[in-house]
Amino acid sequence: MSREIGSKGSGFIVVFFFFITLKTVFPQSGSDTVRLKEVEIKAGFQIDNRGFKRVKMDSTILIPRMEMSLGTLLSQYSTIFIKSYGASNLATPSFRGTTAHHTQVEWNGININSPMLGQIDLSLVPVSQFEGVEILYGAAGITRTSGAFGGIVNLASGPDWLNKTKVTLSQTLASFQNFTTDLSVSLGNTNFQSLTKMNLGSGKNDFPFFNDYADSVMRQANAGNLQIGFSEDAFIKIRNRHLITGRLWYSSSRREIPPLNTNPDPSHDENQEDRSWKGVLEYKYVEKAFNFTIRSAFVNDFLHYRYNGLVDAKHRYSSSINQFRLAFSGFRRWTINPGVDYTYSWVNSDAYAGQKRRTVLAGFTEVIFIPSKKLSLSCIAREEVVDGLLMPFIPALGVEYRPWPNPNISFSGNISRNYRYPSLNDLYWETWGNPDLLPEISYSAEGDITWNWLSNDKTFFMEIEITGYYILLKDMIVWTPSSSGSSVWIPENISEVLSRGLEFGINASILLGKTSLDLNGTYNYCRSTYEKQLTPDDASLGKQLIYTPVNTANTSLRISRKNFYFSYIFNYIGRRYTGKDNLTYMPGYNLSNIFFGKNIHMNKFVLSLQLEINNLFDLDYQSVVNRPMPGRNFALTIRGNFTDKSNK
Amino acid sequence: MFRDIYRIRVAEKFSFFLLLSVFLFSCSKEPVREQKPPPDPPPPADTTNYKYGFFIVNEGNFNWGNASVTFIDSATGLAEQDIYQLANNRPLGDVAQSMKVFRERAFIVVNNSNKVEVVNLRDFESVKSIEGFNSPRYIEFVDSAKAYVTNLHKDISVIDLNTLTVTHSIPTPEWTEGMVRYQQYMFVTCVGSFNEPNSKRKAKVLIINTKEDRIVDSIQTGKEPMGIVIDKKLKLWVLCSGGWDGYEPPVLVRINPDLREVEKAFIFPTSAEIPDRLAINPSGDTLYYLKNGIFQMAVNSASLPTQAFIPSSGRLFYGLAIHPIDGTIFATDAIDYVQDGKGYEFSSSTGAQINVWQAGRIPGSFCFGQQQNRKTIQ
Question: Least CB-packed of A237, A435, B36, B176 within 10 Å?
Answer without folding.
Answer: A435
